[in-house]
Amino acid sequence: GKQVYLDVRNSTLSFASNLIKSYGPFSTWNFRSNAVNAVNRWKRVYELTQQRDFNNPFDLIQSLKLETETETSLIELFRKHHVSDKLTENFCGAIIQNMYLQNQTINAFAGEVGLAGAGLVGGHLFGIRGGNGNMFGQVLAKIAAAGKAKVHYNTAVTAVADTSVVLKDGSKVEFDAVVIATPLELAGIKILVGNSQLKLQEREYKPVHVTLVAGELDLNYFHSNSSTPPASVFVKANQGLAYKSIGHTGFTTDGTKIYKFFSDQPLPEPLLDQLFSKRIDQTEHHWNGAYPVLKPKNLWPDYQLAPKVFYCNGLETAAASLETNAVSAFNVANLCKVRLTALK
User: Fold this and answer.
1) Higher-pLDDT residue of 86, 344
2) What is the rounded CA–CA span in Å between residue 15 and residue 230?
3) Residue 215: enclosing H or E segment and its boundaries?
4) How many Å apart are CA 58 and CA 88, to the nearest integer?
């Protein structure tokens, strides 16, 4: 409601020219080059995980020559590469706040993942119709239908004891091996090895509020001369605004636009009254831990926690995304196969 730092239209030329005009050609070139370079190093991961298995996510990061990025904040790395603080704070910080509800002090690798996701290294972002969560349901349904696995829904696990999984009702189910694919910091699952409980150093996770509103944005709030409301609003970090980003995310059945807000706390009704000239409907969702707090030099839990217990979520320390977790899952599947064969 105060100032627009950068206003771009949905075209590459408008985007590039406005960035250069606002932040200068050298900073613009250097920050994009860094993001491209990091993504190119990351892309080697597919070839690398076909060739060998990794015991620890940091070993994987080192093999990709990305350890400096995970041990340094984005703003520190960009300073080293002659990117202005103004660009890092106003532009990159706003994108990262939209991605992770964090700012330019996150580790540089996560920051560059965020910039790649914003389309700065080419390529496209894709989504699954009906929501990305559908991908997992569809995959599980196909595996079950093919008779490759038994899939149990709504079955809470409270502990893993060697190869036994302890269910909420106290019963136990035996397996050859157990793979955990959820952050242990949030899952409430105990890992029991022999007579003792395994204690991992816990990473901090970031709570996120999502508010979806069907209605019409009030152009007066944005001091806009346009007759069309903005499709996306990214907020510079540390602005003190209750919302961190706004995005047009779809339509209701009668054609009313739906906007998505990310915030640290529930949005107050008086603020929503300011933002909208008309509100038809709204809903809120709270994630207790949407992403890890992506600090430099953070904790790296191993892929193998016990002889037959494996863990997929260690790479979330570097950056939390579907892609990084899929890479971890592939590595864990290979590791599990090799280790179980060796035990036989």
Assistant:
1) 86
2) 15
3) strand 205-217
4) 26
Q: Measured between alpha carbons, how far is residue 307 from residues 183, 184, 311, 338 in Å?
A: 19, 18, 12, 12
Strand pairing partners for 248? 259
What is the per-residue burial (b if ≥16 Cβ within 10 Å, else e) of 284-299? eeeeebbbbebbbebe
CA proximity to 75, closest of 62, 58, 87, 61? 87
Compute CA distances 45 → 48, 64, 101, 223, whole Å.
5, 7, 27, 45
Residue 224 has pLDDT above 60, yes or no: yes
pLDDT of residue 1: 55
**pLDDT class of 130 with cuts at 50, 70, 90:** confident
Alpha-carbon span 196 to 218, nearest angstrom: 59
Report how far apart, in Å, the C-alpha atoms of 290 and of each of 264, 296, 338 are.
Answer: 11, 18, 32
| pLDDT at site 279 | 95
Rounded to two decimals, what is the model's pTM? Answer: 0.87
Instruction: Identify the three-state secondary structure at position 298.
Output: coil
Q: What is the structure's pLDDT at 206?
A: 92
CA-CA distance, 303 to 336, in Å (whole number)?
9
What per-residue confidence (pLDDT) applies to 331? Answer: 96
Residue 81, CB-side half-sphere exposure with 13 Å CA sphere: 20
- Asked if 311 contacts 332 with a C-beta cutoff of 8 angstroms, the reply is yes
Q: Is the Cβ–Cβ distance between 73 and 260 less than 8 Å? A: no
| Percentage of the chain modeled with pLDDT above 70 | 97
Residue 70: which H helix or E strand, with range?
A: helix 67-71
Highest-pLDDT range among 30-39, 62-71, 289-298, 334-343:
62-71
Distance CA 41, CA 101 (A): 25
**Residue predicted with more confidence, 15 or 62:** 62
The pairs formed by 174-179 with CB atoms below 8 angstroms and a separation of 24 or more are: 176/308, 176/340, 177/308, 177/309, 177/310, 177/336, 177/340, 178/308, 178/309, 178/310, 179/310, 179/311, 179/312, 179/332, 179/333, 179/336
Q: How confident is the model at residue 126 (pLDDT cuts 50, 70, 90)?
A: confident
